[in-house]
Amino acid sequence: MDGVLFDSMQFHAKAWIKALGEHGIPFGEYDAYMNEGRTGSSTINEYFLRYKGRKPSEEEEKNIYESKSHYFNEISETKPIPDVTGLIALLQKDSKSIYLVTGSGQKSLLETLEHHFPGTFVRERMVTAYDVTNCKPDPEPYLTALGRAGVSADRAVVIENSPLGVKSGSAAGIFTIAVNTGILDDNILYEYGADIVMHDMKSLIDEYSNIFI
After folding, report:
1. Is the backbone peptide bond immediately before 137 cis, with ω within 30 degrees of 0?
2. What does pTM read for this prediction?
3. Which CATH number fits the domain 84-211, given the four candidates 3.40.50.1000, 3.60.9.10, 1.10.940.10, 3.20.20.10?
4. How many percent of the chain have pLDDT more than 70?
5. How far is it, in rounded angstroms, from Cα 107 to Cα 137?
6. Which helix (H) or strand (E) holds 31?
7. 3-state helix, strand, coil in the chain (%, to 5)
8. Across the strands, what pairs with 158?
9. Could you say which architecture CATH assigns to the domain 9-75?
């Protein structure tokens, strides 16, 4: 979702940096982009173990995630990634099934999607943090999407932007396109399993007929 549908990762990064920093955890912009796609709980636990040598208490985890959400809502501007609506229009014209696979668990998720992409996303075609036991980079989120779609991996394409999302899609055996809308080097996305790396949705639209056949 973030970085593929919405141009929002910069705001998530700033919110995570502030929320974790308040607990003495050094978390920078690079960390935010490398961990994009994890659930909030997974991110908090990962960095507590790394810098404090323990898991956070339930209260600590709850407070950090609430702070992160508060800071994000204060500074964020929800706007679609340039040209993503054009890509969606092409997919819909060709009657392709579109599934959203996200680590997000936002209660406002459906409302936000419906506002910006009316009629495109329904709950039955979404895999969120509430639907899986293992989040990205585990293949479970994309395997779950394949199961709901009733298709094999060779009949699907993943469009991702984050290393962990790319690894999840690739591990599920799906052809995975990385659209590098963030700050990371292309080589990182290739190392995590991307089959193709592009730099914007316009490039993907230009290659549409060569990919979505």
Report:
1. yes
2. 0.90
3. 3.40.50.1000
4. 100
5. 23
6. helix 29-34
7. 55, 10, 40
8. 176
9. Orthogonal Bundle (1.10)
Take residue 194 and report the two structure tokens written for it.
Answer: 């991307």
Q: For 158, what's the count of Cα atoms within 13 Å in the CB-facing half-sphere?
A: 34
Q: Which runs of consecutive H residues, i.e. helices, occur in 105-195?
A: 109-116, 140-149, 163-171, 186-191
Question: Phi first, then psi: what are they for 54, rounded to 5°?
Answer: -155, 165
- Interhelix angle 163-171/140-149, rounded to 10 degrees, is 50
Q: How far apart are CA 47 and CA 60, in angstroms?
A: 13
C-alpha 48: how far from chain center = 22
How many residues are present in the chain? 213
Domain boundaries for CATH 3.40.50.1000 within the chain: 84-211
Backbone angles phi, psi at 76, to 5 degrees: -75, 150
DSSP H or E segment with residue 196: strand 196-198
Q: How many Cβ atoms from other residues are within 10 Å of residue 208's Cβ?
A: 15
Q: If you ran DSSP here, which 8-state letter would residue 124 be given?
A: G
43-100 confidence digits (pLDDT tens): 999 999 999 999 999 999 999 999 999 999 899 888 999 999 999 999 999 999 999 9
